[in-house]
Design goal:
By secondary structure, the chain is α/β, with parallel strands linked by helices. It has a single domain, classed as Alpha-Beta Barrel (TIM Barrel). 38% of the residues lie in helices and 19% in strands. The longest helix has 18 residues. The structure holds ligand PBG and zinc ion. Ligand PBG binds next to helix 6.
């Protein structure tokens, strides 16, 4: 193929031709919408750094879940803001916890909507870490017990998929064993397998009120500089029988998405995190970029990199453009 006989522009000449040779197609079916369920009633509080995203009490969450379902989005992922926090995150695995109540309410109102739950302790602990603290650091093995209890409690409340985001070693196996021993062998585990210690989570921590009260998460989340370590983390989760692998954040880690897609056969999820969303919203609000085009280009890039599914705060906006 040489110019001038070969001309690449021939296949770009009209929209019909471009559609015929388009390689990556983003679909509404690929999207998962995150929601923040807050304790109380009549609450609908916009997160200042995340325009369009709210902390909401259950009745508003249910209304939005219905809207999400009507847009054709297949799934939501839930985060909870409990009434009270303590050192061991008790609300996380209480049958009357904020998430357990939210799951039941959504499953009753919109049974067909897939409910995924974030399994972690940071939203429920008063110190804001993802596990329980011993000698100033998160105690891995003691935390596994609580994460397994939390995942089981979500399944008992009706969750369709549990998604551990804590980054403790051995948590997928611990959760799998607990689910299997209690009649929930059919519930998949979506593992936040490769989760980096990222500044892009900033707006989320406002939304979930989960900022660590001392230190940071670098003793359990991954160093953004590492790639081989991502393969080790993913391989461990595959051995522990995870059903999905996730890479998080997405935008600065598209190479890792591509790598994992090529090395592992499990469905791959990209988490288009809060800071990535906020940057697009802020730039668009300033008139610096075209919101819809930058959003779709970003989501398409994640699919092109290898994501099968994308957890994104843009899900509703994208679904409106894509249709069902
Ligand atoms: C909890 C959790 C976090 C996110 C998802 N689950 C925050 C964190 O680890 O600090 C981040 C999501 C986002 O930024 O959109 N472990
Ligand atoms: Zn956490």
């Amino acid at each position: 193929m040489f110019f001038p006989e070969y001309r690449a522009r021939r296949l770009r000449r009209t929209e019909a031709l471009r559609r015929m040779v388009r390689e990556t197609v983003l679909r509404t079916d690929d999207l998962i919408y995150p929601m923040f369920s807050a304790f109380g009633q009549g609450i609908k509080k916009e997160i200042p750094s995340m325009p369009g995203i709210y902390q909401q009490s259950i009745e508003h969450i249910v209304a939005e879940a219905r809207e999400v379902y009507d847009l054709g989005i297949p799934a939501v992922i839930l985060f909870g803001i409990p009434e009270a926090k303590d050192a061991v995150g008790s609300d996380a695995y209480s049958d009357h916890g904020i998430i357990q109540k939210t799951i039941r309410a959504i499953k009753q109102a919109v049974p067909q909507l897939v409910v995924i739950t974030d399994v972690c302790l940071c939203e429920y602990t008063d110190h804001g870490h993802c596990g329980i603290i011993k000698d100033g650091d998160v105690d891995n093995d003691a935390t596994l017990e609580l994460l397994a209890a939390e995942a089981l409690s979500h399944a008992q409340a009706g969750a369709d998929i549990v998604a551990p985001s804590d980054m403790m070693d051995g948590r997928v196996a611990a959760i799998r064993a607990r689910l299997d021993a209690n009649g929930f062998a059919h519930i998949p585990v979506m593992s936040y397998a490769v989760k980096y210690a990222s500044a892009y989570y900033g707006p989320f921590r406002d939304a979930a009120e989960s900022t660590p009260q001392f230190g940071d998460r670098r003793s359990y989340q991954m160093d953004p500089a590492n790639r081989s370590e991502a393969f080790r983390e993913a391989a461990l989760d595959v051995q522990e029988c995870a059903d999905f692998l996730m890479v998080k954040p997405a935008l600065a880690y598209l190479d890792i998405l591509r790598d994992l897609k090529e090395r592992f056969d499990l469905p791959l999820v990209a988490y288009n995190v809060s800071g990535e969303y906020s940057m697009i919203k802020a730039a668009a609000a300033n008139g610096w970029v075209d919101h819809d085009r930058v959003m779709m280009e970003t989501l398409t890039g994640m699919k092109r990199a290898g994501a099968d599914l994308i957890i994104t705060y843009h899900a509703k906006d994208a679904a409106r453009l894509l249709g069902r």
